Amino acid sequence: MKNVGILISGRGSNFRALSDAIEAGRIPARISLVLSNRASAAGLELAKERNYATACIPSQGVDRDAYSRLLARELRSARVDLVCLAGFMRILGPELVKQYPLRILNIHPSLLPAFTGLHAQRQALEWGAKVTGCTVHFVDEKLDHGPIILQYPVPVEEGDTEESLSARILVHEHQIYPEALKLLCQGRVRVKGRSVRILPGGPQI
Ligand code: GRF
Q: In the CATH scheme, what is the code of domain 1-100?
């Protein structure tokens, strides 16, 4: 059973989706820590309601490496094996990433490598993309860059706004993130360079 640490900054709807799947027994994992860099994160309230161990480490004014050291300490003391970034608005320092090789996941609301960074849905609209979507990938030292585990395409519709497109993508984020975590926890993910192979077996969730 893997110990999962979930890092959030805000709403926490992806955290909720991961928690729902874990609590329903669909992922062989337990959530050993929910950590936010913002005290006001709504996801933190949900984590408390669900009786998870929580931590808030404010990041404002703390540089990346110093912040990463604080995170590393929390993750270690909660015996976290796998980290899920779920709307976590800080970039992890390279030292921290190296401590969890192929053990940190992120969800990004575009089909990477398109539209990295902030406001990916707005970027897709402004670019005039016909299709965008979401990606679960391993975190490496570069932003939105590591090997891709799962992606799901979402067509851009006539008249879409940033809000309407984001809402349609989010539905699929909530499906592929738990699915990717399940595959990892089941030991069904093989990585060779940038290539991720999913071994067959087990039912879809
Ligand atoms: C999601 O769109 C996710 O893809 C992005 O940040 C947003 C977080 O939403 N990284 P939530 O806090 O999980 O609701």
A: 3.40.50.170
